[in-house]
Structure formats: structure tokens, C-alpha cells
Amino acid sequence: MGNEVHSTALLLVEIGALLLVLSLLARFGARFGISPIPLYLLAGLALGNGGVLPLSASNEFFSVGSEIGVILLLVMLGLEYSASELVGSLKRSKLAGAMDAVFNALPGAAFAIILGWGPIAALALAGITWVSSSGVIAKLVRDLGRIGNRETPVILSVLVIEDLAMAFYLPVLSAVVIGAGIMEGAITLAIAVLVVLVILLVALRWGRFLSRLFPAEHAEALLLGVLGLTMLVAGLADRVNVSAAVGAFLVGIALSGPVAHNATQLLTPLRDLFAAIFFVFFGLATDPADIWPVLLPALALALLTIVTKTASGYLAAKHAGIGKLGRWRTGLSLAPRGEFSIVIAGLAVGAGLEPQLAPLATAYVLVTIIVGSITTRLPDAAWFRRMVAPSATAEPQPSQIPTADPSA
To answer: Residue 333: which of 343, 322, 348, 344 has the closest Cα?
Structure first.
């Protein structure tokens, strides 16, 4: 009993101290106009295994909290859009999704072949460099006040296409790395496809009826109901190898009207808390000592694929009729990789593939998040706007851009 009390006390002390540190970091970032995401990551590195002051009692809490953080970020993005807007955007973004895959998966595959890791590792590294981080990008879009921008639906379309593609990619990769038979892999893939289609069908056909299940005027019941449904669908989706983020996003899409509006207000504080925990845990789970041997290759791969991701995002926005600044905002916003890249690396290494793949992926993700969090702000700088779009220098700041403004 005494040990349990001591363990609980230590857990509370660690969580409380870290949240206070995060508060100071968020204030520091706001004071100097920078995103707090890189600061949260560096705090996690300093406090994780191999860090300056490693935490010992709260890792499990932050692990669960990080999963909740991604789910809340995505459900609240989904609440901003309707099911019809999502389907229309996906139809318009088929070419963007294809370009995104070609531009960003091939460099990873080629890199693995050059390192001599073999074709299966190449398939894994292709996925690591392909998929952007929905959690990081969702926070960046919100922090920079770009939810109402014309390019934001393009960004979301690319993210959703990538996440949906992961529903097919992960079962295939799992079957390949463990040497499973064709039949077993096909069954897993078919289940994943069926789950995605069912969630989409419910969101499109019965979303308005789903909203009626929740009392928009009763804050407590609404908060518990929406949060419960989101967690349930995200968990079921993850259970069948579909992204939990996709499930959460589609729950947000399915809800509409006063329910969506009031749920957004109620969930905002929870999202901010658990999103910070998500980024800290990413750093906590990384041993800095594992990063140094692969830092230069990871840095080279990160810089290469930040360029390719920016290019594919720029072209996707151009195809959608977005102006120059909006194209740059699209491309630069998509640079960070995150949760899927780590999942893919863990899956591959757990099956006995190249052991350096995990630290390389970790270093790669950290570089893309830190660099991406900084470069995504470039289109807001006056010098950048003058350089890429001189005619748009009088354009209002992104958060003030009306959705019908073609120069966005």
C-alpha cells in the first residue's frame, strides 16, 4: 500500500511539474511568435530515457495521453467540415494524392536501396517518408489561424487520402514483413477497406440523425457523448488496422449544426492539453543516444523529402486553383511527418528488419517536425510574400483571408 501511495505521489509530481514547464514553453513561444511544437519535442527529449532529467513514473500516462491527443486534434478538424465537403474534396484531390505518393514515397524507397537494406526495408521507408503527420499539421493550421483559408481543404484532403491509404498499406506491410500468406494478407486488407467504407457511409447518409443523439444545449451530456463516440470509433478503427485518426476525423465530419459548434467549444481545452502531451511523449520515447549515429542520413533524407512534400503540396494547391501564397502554405504545411512514420518503423524493426531503421525514422520525424514547424510560417513573412507573390503583398494575414478570395 505504501509503495502504491509513493508511486501515485511521484506520478502526480512528474505530471504537474511537466505541465508547468509546458506552460512556460507555450508562453515563451507566444512571446516570440514561434510554434510551441519544437519546444515540446525538445522538452520530451530532455526528460526521456537518456535525457538530462528522465521521468520514471509517468511514461504510461503520457503514452495514453498522446493517443488521445491525436484523436482530439482530428475530430475537431472534422467538426469544421461536412460530409459532402469531404467527399467533394476527395474527388477533386485524386491527382494530388497520386502526386503526393510518387513524390514522397520514392525517395524513401531509393534511400533504403542505396543503404543496402533490401526491398522490404525499402517498402517500409517509403511509407515513412510518404505520410505527413495529421496531429502536427492539425495543430499548426489551428495555431496559425488558417482553418478558414482556401488552401486548408486541400491540405485536409491530402492528409485524409494519406490516412486512408494507410488503411491499405499497413496490412500489406504487416503481411510482407512477417512473411504471411497471400490469403491472410488479403483478408486483413478486405476488413480494413470494409471498415473505412462503413464509417464513410454512416457519416454521409446518417450523419444528421447521429447529431440528434446528442443534446446540443446540455454541455455535460454533449461532451461525454461526443468524446465517447469518438474514442469508440477510433478504437474500433485502430483494432482493424485502420487509422484511429481517420475514425476520429470521420466522426467529426458526421456531426453537424449546433452539436458540432458546441462540441468544438467544449473540446477545445481538452484538445490543447492532450495535443501538448502528444508532442512531449514523442520526445520522451526517443533516446538521444540512438539518434547521433544516424543523424546525418536522417537530416539528408528529411531535407530532401521536405522539398518533395512542398513541391507536391504546391502542385496540388495549384491544381485546385489556389493562389501562389496559398500554394506555398499548402506545401510547407505538409512537411512534418509523425505518428504513422513511427508506427511503420516499429512494425518493420519488430519483425526483424534493419535495426537502424527505428532510430533513423525517429531522427527523421524529429527533423521534419522541427523544421516544418518553422518553415510553415514563412508565407506569413513580408519578405517571403514580396519574393513569391509581389502582387499579393497587400493581402491580409492568413487568419483574415476570406474563403472566397482567389489570391489566398
So the answer is: 322
Q: Tell me the C-alpha distance between 365 and 21, whole Å.
A: 23
CA distance 131 to 341: 7
DSSP-based three-state secondary structure for 154:
helix
User: For residue 80, is it left (φ>0), alpha (ψ between -120 and 50) or beta?
Assistant: alpha
Backbone angles phi, psi at 384, to 5 degrees: -70, -40
Residue 393 burial (CB count, 10 A): 11
**Kind and range of the H or E element at 221?**
helix 219-239
Could you list the pLDDT tens digit for every one of the 408 residues in the chain? 556 666 788 888 888 888 999 999 989 877 876 678 778 878 888 887 777 777 766 778 888 888 888 888 878 877 876 666 667 767 777 788 889 999 999 999 999 999 888 888 899 999 999 999 887 888 888 888 888 888 988 898 888 888 777 767 877 777 777 665 556 667 766 776 777 677 677 767 777 777 788 888 888 999 999 999 999 988 887 777 666 777 787 788 788 788 888 998 999 899 888 888 887 887 777 778 878 888 899 999 999 999 999 999 999 999 888 999 999 999 999 999 977 787 788 777 766 777 788 788 888 988 998 899 889 989 988 888 888 877 655 444 444 433 434 334
CA 202 and chain centroid, separation: 24
DSSP3 helix / strand / coil % (the chain, rounded to 5): 80, 0, 20
Q: What angle do CA 387, 391, 394 make, to 5 degrees?
A: 95
Give which of 280, 268, 272 is closest to 14, Cα–Cα.
280
Under DSSP, the state recorded for 250 is H
Give this prediction's pTM.
0.72
Question: Quick one: how far is CA 63 from the chain centroid?
Answer: 16
Nearest to 210 by CA among 219, 199, 220: 199
8 Å CB contact between 105 and 132: no
Are residues 237 and 170 in contact, defined by beta-carbon separation less than 8 angstroms? no
Query: Rounded to the nearest 10 degrees, how much is the dihedral formed by the CA atoms of 137, 142, 145, 150?
Result: 60
